[in-house]
Write a structure and sequence with these properties.
It is built from two helices and ten strands; from the N terminus they run H-E-E-E-E-E-H-E-E-E-E-E. By secondary structure, the protein is of the alpha+beta class. The chain folds into two domains: about 40 residues; about 150 residues, no CATH class. Strands 1, 2, 3, 4, 5, 7 and 8 form a seven-stranded antiparallel sheet that branches. A three-stranded antiparallel sheet has the order 6-9-10, with no helix packed on it. The longest helix is centred in the first third of the chain and has 34 residues.
Length: about 210
């Protein structure tokens, strides 16, 4: 014998089935959205590790190159960074400097310089001097400037006069404000951004 279902019971049963269907659809949409969101998340662009900075200064008209090397093979590890300078600068000479950046903590060694050049609008190198040293300026080669005509700073010019001594700090900044006051002239004061690497060298002109 079949049991009769009242109108109220029938309506209640249909309402439950409808609610269950809506809940199932909502759950499916949520899972699909979550999956899409995860897939659409852009990868994090981690900064390269720079262990070694090398600046080679070549004298115009002949003479001995001066090489500056900063090395910190363990990055933020306990071992202190080292700096070396191959010799003294000569008086009354103009030196053309070229700086390179490498990661020597990997094998094979990775040259970071081409990446800095390619992303020139996001990088700038600063040369800060102390003591009686003359100012280091940017080289005027077109490759020393980014797509906006702002300096990258991979090339520099150092013109000596009389005897002098002091320090030179070479700093690579990531995402600096290149339109800040005097930043394009090499003044780091208003550059802001993040320091990727910096090394300080003791220099002598004699």
């Amino acid at each position: 014998m079949k049991t009769k279902i009242s109108n109220n019971q029938f309506n209640l049963k249909m309402k439950k089935m409808k609610n269950l269907k809506i809940t199932t659809l909502a759950l499916g949409a949520l899972l699909a959205f979550s999956s899409c969101s995860k897939d659409d998340t852009p990868p994090v662009n981690e900064e390269e590790l720079i262990t070694t900075v090398t600046a080679v200064f070549t004298p115009q008209g002949g003479g001995t190159n001066i090489t500056l090397i900063y090395k910190d093979l363990d990055g933020e590890g306990p071992t202190a960074a080292t700096t070396t300078v191959s010799g003294n600068f000569m008086q009354n000479k103009t030196y053309i400097g070229a700086v390179t950046f490498k990661n020597e903590a990997v094998n094979p060694i990775e040259d970071i310089t081409p990446e800095i050049l390619t992303e020139g609008d996001e990088h700038q190198i600063f040369y800060q001097k102390t003591g009686t040293l003359n100012t280091f300026t940017y080289g005027m080669a077109s490759s020393n400037f980014d797509v906006n005509g702002k300096p990258i700073g991979l090339q520099s010019v150092f013109t000596t006069t009389g005897a002098a001594s002091g320090t030179l700090k070479i700093t690579l900044r990531h995402l600096p404000n290149k339109s800040g006051a005097n930043v394009a002239a090499g003044d780091i004061t208003n550059a802001f951004g993040n320091t990727d690497v910096e090394g300080t060298f003791n220099l002598t002109v004699q």
